[in-house]
Amino acid sequence: AGTRTFSIIKPDATKRNLTGAVTKMLEDAGLRVVASKRIHMTREQAEGFYAVHKERPFFGELVDFMISGPVVVQVLEGENAMQRNRDIMGATNPADAAPGTIRKELAESIEANTVHGSDSDENAAIEIAYFFNEDEIVG
Ligand code: CMP
């Protein structure tokens, strides 16, 4: 029930075997994992996903990092899922993130920041469709 958002558990987290720890924090925050798969993104896939950041100075490093190891892409469902997920993720830069958030507790840096989460319901729908077919999502 509720709405859906999109999440990525990033390579810094899969490398440190934190897939379960991140997922537990999402679940404890009231989100349900209704789709999940571990993938190693191609460069083209990562560039397409982050196309909105193409002109940013950190784009190249961001893509390199996102293909440096496996990630776990997930669809999360819950009451106000997009905002709920952003609240539990914390600020982009872990140095600015509030105590108890995923990025404060687990992230290494602004780049290796453990999770991605959609920043609007509109982008959530786009990002979900980028990685999942509707029949892979089981609510
Ligand atoms: P994410 O939510 O995945 O969206 C874009 C990502 O770019 C962001 O998380 C950060 O991990 C990454 N990034 C790297 N450097 C910066 C920066 N200087 N400012 C913002 N985002 C950055």
From TrEMBL:
It comes from the Bacteria. Its cofactor is Mg(2+). CDD domains: NDPk_I. The active site is at H116. It is found in: Cytoplasm. Gene3D superfamilies: Nucleoside diphosphate kinase-like domain. Its EC number is 2.7.4.6. It is an enzyme of class 2 (transferase). Keywords: ATP-binding, Cytoplasm, Kinase, Magnesium, Metal-binding, Nucleotide metabolism, Nucleotide-binding, Phosphoprotein, Transferase. It catalyses: a 2'-deoxyribonucleoside 5'-diphosphate + ATP = a 2'-deoxyribonucleoside 5'-triphosphate + ADP; a ribonucleoside 5'-diphosphate + ATP = a ribonucleoside 5'-triphosphate + ADP. Major role in the synthesis of nucleoside triphosphates other than ATP. The ATP gamma phosphate is transferred to the NDP beta phosphate via a ping-pong mechanism, using a phosphorylated active-site intermediate. Homotetramer. Belongs to the NDK family. This is Nucleoside diphosphate kinase. It comes from Parasphingorhabdus litoris.
